Amino acid sequence: MCFFWCLTRPKFHAFISHISPSFLSHYFSFDPDRGESDSVKMGESQRFQLGTVGALSLSVVSSVSIVICNKALISSLGFSFATTLTSWHLLVTFCSLHVALWMKLFEHKPFDARAVMGFGILNGTSIGLLNLSLGFNSVGFYQMTKLAIIPCTVLLETVFFRKRFSRSIQLSLSILLLGVGIATVTDLQLNALGSVLSLLAVITTCIAQIMTNNIQKKFKVSSTQLLYQSCPYQAMTLFIAGPFLDWLLTKQNVFAFKYTSEVLVFIVLSCLISVSVNFSTFLVIGKTSPVTYQVLGHLKTCLVLAFGYVLLHDPFSWRNILGILIALIGMVLYSYYCSREGQQKPSEVSAQMAQAKESETDPLIGVENGAGILTDAVVAKAPAWNSNKDLQA
Length: 393
Hints:
This is Sugar phosphate transporter domain-containing protein. It is a multi-pass membrane protein. Pfam families: TPT. By secondary structure, the chain is mainly alpha-helical. The chain has one domain (about 55-390). About 80% of the residues lie in helices and about 0% in strands. It has helices spanning about 1-5, 10-15, 20-30, 40-75, 80-100, 115-135, 140-145, 150-160, 165-185, 190-220, 225-250, 260-285, 290-310, 320-360, 365-370, 370-380, 385-390. The longest helix is centred in the C-terminal third of the chain and has 42 residues, at about 320-360. It is globular.
Protein backbone atom coordinates (compact mmCIF):
# COMPACT_ATOMS: atom_id res chain seq x y z
CA MET A 1 0.00 0.00 0.00
CA CYS A 2 2.86 2.31 0.84
CA PHE A 3 4.47 1.47 -2.52
CA PHE A 4 1.22 2.27 -4.35
CA TRP A 5 0.97 5.58 -2.43
CA CYS A 6 4.51 6.54 -3.48
CA LEU A 7 3.83 5.82 -7.12
CA THR A 8 0.68 8.00 -7.09
CA ARG A 9 2.38 11.09 -5.66
CA PRO A 10 2.20 14.01 -8.14
CA LYS A 11 5.74 15.11 -7.32
CA PHE A 12 7.01 11.67 -8.32
CA HIS A 13 5.23 11.85 -11.68
CA ALA A 14 6.32 15.44 -12.21
CA PHE A 15 9.92 14.36 -11.67
CA ILE A 16 9.56 11.50 -14.16
CA SER A 17 7.82 13.51 -16.91
CA HIS A 18 9.85 16.71 -16.76
CA ILE A 19 13.38 15.36 -17.17
CA SER A 20 14.87 17.28 -20.10
CA PRO A 21 17.98 17.09 -22.25
CA SER A 22 19.24 20.19 -20.45
CA PHE A 23 19.10 18.17 -17.23
CA LEU A 24 20.93 15.32 -18.91
CA SER A 25 23.65 17.60 -20.20
CA HIS A 26 23.86 19.14 -16.74
CA TYR A 27 24.24 15.68 -15.26
CA PHE A 28 26.63 14.12 -17.72
CA SER A 29 28.91 17.09 -18.51
CA PHE A 30 31.38 18.82 -16.18
CA ASP A 31 30.52 22.33 -15.04
CA PRO A 32 32.45 23.84 -12.09
CA ASP A 33 29.60 26.26 -11.38
CA ARG A 34 27.05 23.59 -10.58
CA GLY A 35 25.69 23.82 -7.07
CA GLU A 36 24.43 20.27 -6.73
CA SER A 37 26.79 17.59 -5.55
CA ASP A 38 27.46 14.43 -7.55
CA SER A 39 25.98 12.33 -4.79
CA VAL A 40 22.65 14.18 -5.02
CA LYS A 41 22.53 13.70 -8.79
CA MET A 42 23.40 10.04 -8.50
CA GLY A 43 20.57 9.69 -5.97
CA GLU A 44 18.09 11.26 -8.41
CA SER A 45 19.18 8.90 -11.20
CA GLN A 46 18.85 5.90 -8.90
CA ARG A 47 15.38 6.99 -7.75
CA PHE A 48 14.33 7.35 -11.38
CA GLN A 49 15.50 3.84 -12.27
CA LEU A 50 14.07 2.44 -9.03
CA GLY A 51 10.66 3.88 -9.90
CA THR A 52 10.74 2.21 -13.32
CA VAL A 53 11.84 -1.14 -11.89
CA GLY A 54 9.10 -0.85 -9.28
CA ALA A 55 6.49 -0.20 -11.98
CA LEU A 56 7.67 -3.23 -13.98
CA SER A 57 7.66 -5.45 -10.89
CA LEU A 58 4.18 -4.28 -9.90
CA SER A 59 2.92 -5.03 -13.40
CA VAL A 60 4.35 -8.56 -13.41
CA VAL A 61 3.13 -9.51 -9.92
CA SER A 62 -0.36 -8.06 -10.35
CA SER A 63 -0.86 -9.50 -13.85
CA VAL A 64 0.22 -13.01 -12.90
CA SER A 65 -2.00 -12.81 -9.80
CA ILE A 66 -5.09 -11.77 -11.74
CA VAL A 67 -4.51 -14.49 -14.36
CA ILE A 68 -4.43 -17.15 -11.63
CA CYS A 69 -7.52 -15.65 -9.97
CA ASN A 70 -9.47 -15.41 -13.23
CA LYS A 71 -8.44 -18.92 -14.25
CA ALA A 72 -9.98 -20.24 -11.03
CA LEU A 73 -13.08 -18.09 -11.58
CA ILE A 74 -13.60 -19.16 -15.20
CA SER A 75 -12.32 -22.75 -15.25
CA SER A 76 -13.30 -23.96 -11.80
CA LEU A 77 -16.41 -21.88 -11.02
CA GLY A 78 -17.78 -21.58 -14.57
CA PHE A 79 -17.97 -17.77 -14.68
CA SER A 80 -16.94 -17.26 -18.33
CA PHE A 81 -18.13 -13.67 -18.87
CA ALA A 82 -14.71 -12.12 -19.45
CA THR A 83 -15.78 -8.87 -21.14
CA THR A 84 -18.38 -8.00 -18.50
CA LEU A 85 -15.87 -8.86 -15.79
CA THR A 86 -13.38 -6.44 -17.38
CA SER A 87 -15.99 -3.65 -17.25
CA TRP A 88 -16.38 -4.30 -13.52
CA HIS A 89 -12.59 -4.17 -13.17
CA LEU A 90 -12.51 -0.72 -14.73
CA LEU A 91 -15.44 0.50 -12.64
CA VAL A 92 -13.72 -0.59 -9.41
CA THR A 93 -10.47 1.00 -10.63
CA PHE A 94 -12.25 4.31 -11.19
CA CYS A 95 -13.89 4.20 -7.76
CA SER A 96 -10.52 3.39 -6.13
CA LEU A 97 -8.85 6.30 -7.91
CA HIS A 98 -11.72 8.58 -6.91
CA VAL A 99 -11.10 7.67 -3.27
CA ALA A 100 -7.37 8.30 -3.80
CA LEU A 101 -8.22 11.71 -5.28
CA TRP A 102 -10.46 12.49 -2.30
CA MET A 103 -7.53 11.56 -0.02
CA LYS A 104 -5.36 13.93 -2.12
CA LEU A 105 -2.95 11.18 -3.15
CA PHE A 106 -2.84 12.74 -6.63
CA GLU A 107 -4.10 15.89 -8.33
CA HIS A 108 -6.92 16.01 -10.85
CA LYS A 109 -5.66 17.58 -14.07
CA PRO A 110 -8.37 17.97 -16.72
CA PHE A 111 -7.23 18.22 -20.33
CA ASP A 112 -8.60 17.68 -23.84
CA ALA A 113 -11.97 15.98 -23.17
CA ARG A 114 -12.34 14.74 -26.76
CA ALA A 115 -8.92 13.10 -26.67
CA VAL A 116 -9.75 11.39 -23.36
CA MET A 117 -13.12 10.13 -24.62
CA GLY A 118 -11.67 8.84 -27.89
CA PHE A 119 -8.80 7.17 -26.06
CA GLY A 120 -11.10 5.54 -23.50
CA ILE A 121 -13.53 4.19 -26.12
CA LEU A 122 -10.64 2.90 -28.24
CA ASN A 123 -9.15 1.11 -25.25
CA GLY A 124 -12.47 -0.52 -24.42
CA THR A 125 -12.98 -1.52 -28.05
CA SER A 126 -9.55 -3.15 -28.24
CA ILE A 127 -10.30 -5.26 -25.17
CA GLY A 128 -13.63 -6.39 -26.65
CA LEU A 129 -12.00 -7.26 -29.98
CA LEU A 130 -9.29 -9.31 -28.27
CA ASN A 131 -11.97 -11.30 -26.45
CA LEU A 132 -13.87 -11.82 -29.72
CA SER A 133 -10.65 -12.90 -31.41
CA LEU A 134 -10.14 -15.57 -28.75
CA GLY A 135 -13.75 -16.70 -29.11
CA PHE A 136 -13.75 -17.02 -32.92
CA ASN A 137 -10.23 -18.42 -33.34
CA SER A 138 -8.24 -21.36 -32.05
CA VAL A 139 -5.99 -20.74 -29.06
CA GLY A 140 -2.93 -21.07 -31.30
CA PHE A 141 -4.13 -18.40 -33.73
CA TYR A 142 -5.04 -16.13 -30.80
CA GLN A 143 -1.48 -16.45 -29.49
CA MET A 144 -0.22 -15.53 -32.96
CA THR A 145 -2.46 -12.45 -32.78
CA LYS A 146 -0.81 -11.40 -29.53
CA LEU A 147 2.65 -11.99 -31.02
CA ALA A 148 1.75 -9.71 -33.95
CA ILE A 149 1.26 -6.71 -31.63
CA ILE A 150 5.01 -6.05 -31.23
CA PRO A 151 5.93 -5.94 -34.96
CA CYS A 152 2.78 -3.91 -35.66
CA THR A 153 3.71 -1.40 -32.93
CA VAL A 154 7.26 -1.14 -34.28
CA LEU A 155 5.88 -0.54 -37.78
CA LEU A 156 3.43 2.17 -36.64
CA GLU A 157 6.02 3.99 -34.55
CA THR A 158 8.54 3.84 -37.39
CA VAL A 159 6.13 5.11 -40.05
CA PHE A 160 4.16 7.72 -38.12
CA PHE A 161 6.53 8.79 -35.33
CA ARG A 162 9.88 8.36 -37.09
CA LYS A 163 11.19 6.25 -34.23
CA ARG A 164 14.19 4.12 -35.16
CA PHE A 165 14.83 0.65 -33.79
CA SER A 166 18.40 -0.58 -34.09
CA ARG A 167 19.22 -3.94 -35.66
CA SER A 168 20.19 -5.23 -32.23
CA ILE A 169 16.75 -4.36 -30.82
CA GLN A 170 15.04 -5.92 -33.85
CA LEU A 171 17.12 -9.10 -33.44
CA SER A 172 16.31 -9.43 -29.73
CA LEU A 173 12.59 -8.90 -30.41
CA SER A 174 12.69 -11.57 -33.14
CA ILE A 175 14.30 -14.07 -30.73
CA LEU A 176 11.70 -13.22 -28.09
CA LEU A 177 8.77 -13.70 -30.48
CA LEU A 178 10.26 -16.97 -31.77
CA GLY A 179 10.53 -18.33 -28.23
CA VAL A 180 7.02 -17.31 -27.19
CA GLY A 181 5.69 -18.74 -30.46
CA ILE A 182 7.35 -22.09 -29.83
CA ALA A 183 6.05 -22.18 -26.26
CA THR A 184 2.45 -21.13 -26.87
CA VAL A 185 1.37 -21.63 -30.49
CA THR A 186 -0.01 -25.13 -31.03
CA ASP A 187 -2.48 -25.04 -33.91
CA LEU A 188 -3.30 -22.45 -36.57
CA GLN A 189 -6.89 -22.98 -37.66
CA LEU A 190 -7.93 -20.05 -39.86
CA ASN A 191 -11.36 -18.63 -40.63
CA ALA A 192 -12.35 -15.40 -42.35
CA LEU A 193 -14.33 -13.78 -39.50
CA GLY A 194 -11.74 -14.71 -36.88
CA SER A 195 -8.91 -13.35 -39.03
CA VAL A 196 -10.69 -10.00 -39.51
CA LEU A 197 -11.39 -9.72 -35.78
CA SER A 198 -7.76 -10.53 -34.99
CA LEU A 199 -6.51 -7.88 -37.42
CA LEU A 200 -8.80 -5.25 -35.89
CA ALA A 201 -7.75 -6.32 -32.38
CA VAL A 202 -4.05 -5.94 -33.21
CA ILE A 203 -4.49 -2.51 -34.83
CA THR A 204 -6.67 -1.05 -32.06
CA THR A 205 -4.43 -2.46 -29.32
CA CYS A 206 -1.29 -0.99 -30.90
CA ILE A 207 -2.88 2.43 -31.42
CA ALA A 208 -4.30 2.48 -27.87
CA GLN A 209 -0.94 1.65 -26.31
CA ILE A 210 0.91 4.21 -28.44
CA MET A 211 -1.70 6.80 -27.42
CA THR A 212 -1.21 5.87 -23.75
CA ASN A 213 2.43 6.87 -24.05
CA ASN A 214 1.96 9.93 -26.28
CA ILE A 215 -0.95 11.47 -24.33
CA GLN A 216 1.05 11.39 -21.11
CA LYS A 217 3.93 13.18 -22.84
CA LYS A 218 1.85 15.64 -24.87
CA PHE A 219 -0.45 16.84 -22.07
CA LYS A 220 2.10 16.31 -19.27
CA VAL A 221 -0.23 14.15 -17.22
CA SER A 222 0.71 11.25 -15.00
CA SER A 223 -0.40 7.67 -15.56
CA THR A 224 -2.78 8.03 -12.59
CA GLN A 225 -4.38 11.18 -13.99
CA LEU A 226 -4.86 9.63 -17.43
CA LEU A 227 -6.27 6.40 -16.01
CA TYR A 228 -8.68 8.31 -13.74
CA GLN A 229 -10.12 10.34 -16.63
CA SER A 230 -10.28 7.54 -19.23
CA CYS A 231 -11.62 4.78 -16.95
CA PRO A 232 -15.29 5.86 -17.12
CA TYR A 233 -15.28 5.73 -20.94
CA GLN A 234 -13.56 2.33 -20.99
CA ALA A 235 -15.95 0.94 -18.37
CA MET A 236 -19.01 2.37 -20.15
CA THR A 237 -17.94 0.89 -23.51
CA LEU A 238 -17.42 -2.59 -22.07
CA PHE A 239 -20.42 -2.43 -19.73
CA ILE A 240 -22.71 -1.76 -22.70
CA ALA A 241 -21.08 -4.22 -25.11
CA GLY A 242 -19.96 -6.82 -22.54
CA PRO A 243 -23.19 -8.77 -21.92
CA PHE A 244 -23.89 -9.02 -25.67
CA LEU A 245 -20.32 -10.12 -26.50
CA ASP A 246 -20.32 -12.65 -23.66
CA TRP A 247 -23.66 -14.06 -24.84
CA LEU A 248 -22.27 -14.27 -28.38
CA LEU A 249 -19.25 -16.23 -27.14
CA THR A 250 -20.79 -18.40 -24.41
CA LYS A 251 -24.53 -18.51 -25.27
CA GLN A 252 -25.20 -17.63 -21.62
CA ASN A 253 -26.72 -14.59 -19.95
CA VAL A 254 -24.44 -12.95 -17.39
CA PHE A 255 -27.45 -11.65 -15.45
CA ALA A 256 -28.99 -15.13 -15.21
CA PHE A 257 -25.82 -16.70 -13.80
CA LYS A 258 -26.08 -18.23 -10.31
CA TYR A 259 -23.82 -16.10 -8.12
CA THR A 260 -22.71 -18.21 -5.18
CA SER A 261 -20.72 -16.75 -2.28
CA GLU A 262 -17.55 -18.38 -3.64
CA VAL A 263 -18.06 -16.80 -7.07
CA LEU A 264 -18.67 -13.39 -5.50
CA VAL A 265 -15.48 -13.67 -3.41
CA PHE A 266 -13.36 -14.40 -6.49
CA ILE A 267 -15.06 -11.60 -8.47
CA VAL A 268 -14.30 -9.10 -5.70
CA LEU A 269 -10.71 -10.37 -5.44
CA SER A 270 -10.28 -10.12 -9.22
CA CYS A 271 -11.62 -6.55 -9.23
CA LEU A 272 -9.28 -5.50 -6.42
CA ILE A 273 -6.23 -6.96 -8.18
CA SER A 274 -7.32 -5.25 -11.40
CA VAL A 275 -6.77 -1.83 -9.79
CA SER A 276 -3.07 -2.63 -9.57
CA VAL A 277 -3.05 -4.16 -13.08
CA ASN A 278 -4.64 -1.13 -14.74
CA PHE A 279 -2.52 1.34 -12.80
CA SER A 280 0.76 -0.47 -13.57
CA THR A 281 -0.16 -0.80 -17.26
CA PHE A 282 -0.44 2.96 -17.73
CA LEU A 283 2.60 3.51 -15.52
CA VAL A 284 4.86 1.12 -17.47
CA ILE A 285 3.81 2.40 -20.91
CA GLY A 286 4.26 5.99 -19.78
CA LYS A 287 7.74 5.36 -18.38
CA THR A 288 9.07 3.08 -21.11
CA SER A 289 7.26 2.38 -24.39
CA PRO A 290 4.46 0.26 -25.89
CA VAL A 291 7.07 -2.18 -27.23
CA THR A 292 8.66 -2.64 -23.80
CA TYR A 293 5.21 -3.19 -22.30
CA GLN A 294 4.55 -5.95 -24.84
CA VAL A 295 7.91 -7.54 -24.05
CA LEU A 296 6.91 -7.48 -20.40
CA GLY A 297 3.59 -9.06 -21.38
CA HIS A 298 5.38 -12.03 -22.96
CA LEU A 299 7.45 -12.41 -19.78
CA LYS A 300 4.15 -12.68 -17.90
CA THR A 301 3.02 -15.37 -20.38
CA CYS A 302 6.13 -17.42 -19.64
CA LEU A 303 5.63 -16.99 -15.89
CA VAL A 304 1.97 -18.02 -16.15
CA LEU A 305 2.99 -21.18 -18.05
CA ALA A 306 5.58 -21.97 -15.37
CA PHE A 307 3.17 -21.30 -12.48
CA GLY A 308 0.52 -23.42 -14.20
CA TYR A 309 2.93 -26.32 -14.37
CA VAL A 310 4.24 -25.95 -10.81
CA LEU A 311 1.04 -25.02 -8.95
CA LEU A 312 -1.79 -26.39 -11.10
CA HIS A 313 0.10 -29.31 -12.66
CA ASP A 314 -0.81 -28.28 -16.19
CA PRO A 315 0.72 -30.41 -18.97
CA PHE A 316 4.21 -29.21 -19.83
CA SER A 317 6.39 -30.44 -22.71
CA TRP A 318 9.99 -29.96 -23.78
CA ARG A 319 8.65 -27.64 -26.45
CA ASN A 320 7.28 -25.34 -23.74
CA ILE A 321 10.61 -25.39 -21.89
CA LEU A 322 12.60 -24.70 -25.08
CA GLY A 323 10.29 -21.85 -26.06
CA ILE A 324 10.47 -20.22 -22.63
CA LEU A 325 14.28 -20.44 -22.60
CA ILE A 326 14.54 -18.86 -26.06
CA ALA A 327 12.08 -16.15 -25.04
CA LEU A 328 14.10 -15.39 -21.91
CA ILE A 329 17.26 -15.08 -24.02
CA GLY A 330 15.43 -12.58 -26.23
CA MET A 331 14.28 -10.59 -23.17
CA VAL A 332 17.80 -10.48 -21.72
CA LEU A 333 19.21 -9.30 -25.06
CA TYR A 334 16.44 -6.68 -25.39
CA SER A 335 17.17 -5.35 -21.90
CA TYR A 336 20.92 -5.29 -22.55
CA TYR A 337 20.68 -3.48 -25.89
CA CYS A 338 18.15 -0.98 -24.53
CA SER A 339 20.37 -0.28 -21.54
CA ARG A 340 23.42 0.17 -23.75
CA GLU A 341 21.62 2.48 -26.16
CA GLY A 342 20.08 4.39 -23.26
CA GLN A 343 23.56 5.07 -21.88
CA GLN A 344 24.75 6.29 -25.28
CA LYS A 345 21.92 8.82 -25.62
CA PRO A 346 22.95 11.10 -22.72
CA SER A 347 26.55 11.30 -23.96
CA GLU A 348 25.32 12.25 -27.45
CA VAL A 349 23.07 14.97 -26.01
CA SER A 350 25.92 16.24 -23.85
CA ALA A 351 28.26 16.44 -26.86
CA GLN A 352 25.65 18.35 -28.88
CA MET A 353 25.07 20.82 -26.06
CA ALA A 354 28.81 21.37 -25.59
CA GLN A 355 29.25 21.97 -29.32
CA ALA A 356 26.38 24.46 -29.33
CA LYS A 357 27.80 26.25 -26.28
CA GLU A 358 31.25 26.62 -27.93
CA SER A 359 29.75 28.07 -31.12
CA GLU A 360 28.03 30.83 -29.11
CA THR A 361 31.39 32.62 -28.71
CA ASP A 362 31.18 33.70 -32.38
CA PRO A 363 27.62 34.68 -33.39
CA LEU A 364 28.48 34.81 -37.11
CA ILE A 365 29.96 31.32 -37.12
CA GLY A 366 27.06 30.16 -35.00
CA VAL A 367 24.52 31.31 -37.56
CA GLU A 368 26.45 29.89 -40.50
CA ASN A 369 26.83 26.51 -38.83
CA GLY A 370 23.20 26.47 -37.70
CA ALA A 371 24.21 26.42 -34.04
CA GLY A 372 21.14 28.34 -32.98
CA ILE A 373 18.90 25.84 -34.75
CA LEU A 374 20.79 22.98 -33.15
CA THR A 375 20.36 24.41 -29.68
CA ASP A 376 16.61 24.89 -30.13
CA ALA A 377 16.28 21.40 -31.51
CA VAL A 378 18.08 19.88 -28.58
CA VAL A 379 15.95 21.72 -26.04
CA ALA A 380 12.72 20.85 -27.82
CA LYS A 381 13.60 17.19 -28.23
CA ALA A 382 11.99 14.64 -25.93
CA PRO A 383 14.00 13.38 -22.95
CA ALA A 384 16.60 10.75 -23.77
CA TRP A 385 14.78 8.12 -21.70
CA ASN A 386 11.46 8.91 -23.37
CA SER A 387 12.73 9.35 -26.92
CA ASN A 388 14.40 5.99 -26.73
CA LYS A 389 11.50 4.75 -24.63
CA ASP A 390 13.17 1.41 -24.07
CA LEU A 391 13.86 -0.24 -20.76
CA GLN A 392 17.13 0.15 -18.94
CA ALA A 393 17.11 -3.11 -17.06
